[in-house]
Amino acid sequence: MAEGLVRGLGDDPGLGAAFFHTRATIRLRQGDVDGAVGDATAARDAWVAHGSATTRDAIAARAQLGAVLVEAGRHEEARQVLTAALSDAERVLPADHAIVQSTVSNLAVVCGELGDLAAARGYHERALAAARTTFGDDSVEADEQRLNLSGLLLAEGDVTAVVPLLEAVLAGLGRRGQSATPDAAMVESNLGIALIDGRDPAAAVAHLERSLALFEAALGADHPQLIGTLIYLATALRRSGHGDAAAPHARRALAIAEATYPATSQRLVKPLATLALAVAEADPPQARALAERVRRVSGGDPSSGDGEAALALAIALARQDQRPRARAEAERAVALLTEAGPRAAASLAEAAAWLAAHR
Fold first, then answer.
1. CB-hemisphere CA count at 13 Å for 235?
2. Cα–Cα distances in Å, from 12 out to 15, 46, 49?
3. Residues 29, 46 contacting (CB under 8 angstroms)
4. C-alpha distances in angstroms, 214 versus 42, 186, 207, 230, 247?
5. What's the burial of 32, exposed, middle or buried (CB within 10 Å: 0-12/13-18/19+)?
6. What b-and-e string marks burial along 267-291, b requiring 16 or more CB atoms within 10 Å of the CB?
């Protein structure tokens, strides 16, 4: 029926395209992603059929299609559509046009999803520069782009560049009277994570303690959102020489995780590994039991904490004078953490240093 109505609108491609463009937007808001893809494709095709693919409205339709494909998880198609749309947009629209900026932002997302972190970083940096120029350096829009870029940089392991970005976001939240919000708690937590990876665990502790207090005030003491902050706080305390203070936070993270997820869930691996490391020196039998639990539920996934558990097992075995086996576990930890990639760089450095000291 709708398509018949569009055919009755005449030869103006804009009328039909506008209909499909609007309906795609409505369907996306309603959660009908497949329907939105169909309508966005129809809007794009209406312009192409009339040889008008490089007008502003036609480029907008193509950019919308790319954005909807991102929502549908069709990332390779989205990248192709968005790249072509951006190429044409840059020829006919000013650099600060909303279509150009939204297309750049969507390309940053899709490149990240496809694992092309170098391309994603370029688009994120470009989106941040555009937001600073268009809305101002202290704007909410600029801070949103700083957060997007910082997430990618953390994934790349470039923690040196993350810290000033997150500090700027925290300052912006303070100026806007939002220093005690869950958003501030998340930024504090990410800044703490970056500082751990940047080999400054003592500074990380302060940010993670503030994050924990804010999350507790907003969500309660047993909310699953606290698990990550508790894990990183335990890690920061342990690496700054306060292992006795680390264990209670790690135990709490594990207790919340066990109350939230099934006993076989891989979401238990990181809390288990963190507690194993926290108690490895003081309670080797418990550390060994925790490390064995990690092996049972991790499936050998190096990104899940299996490498940290192997390091905990190595430390525990060494405390029990089983040195050859301890070195073998440390070598396994190094291999797993190497495979885990940039996000495991700090843990890898810790494992490699331990192994070098126990040759």
1. 32
2. 6, 9, 11
3. no
4. 47, 9, 11, 12, 21
5. middle
6. ebbbbbbbbbbbbbbebbebbbebb
What pTM did the predictor assign?
0.79
Residues 180-221 have pLDDT tens digits of 999 999 999 999 998 886 678 889 999 999 999 999 999 999
CB 232 within 8 A of CB 192: yes
- As a dihedral over the C-alpha atoms of residue 75, residue 46, residue 89, residue 110, rounded to 10 degrees, the angle is -10
SS3 165: helix
Contact 192, 213 (CB under 8 A): no
For 176-211, the three-class secondary structure string (H helix, E strand, C coil) is: CCCCCCHHHHHHHHHHHHHHHHCCCHHHHHHHHHHH
Residue range 349-358: average pLDDT? 94
Task: Express each pLDDT in 76-103 by its tens digit.
Answer: 999 999 999 999 999 989 988 999 999 9
- Report the distance separating Cα 99 and Cα 97, nearest Å: 5
- Measure the N-to-C terminal CA separation of the chain; round to a whole number of Å: 76
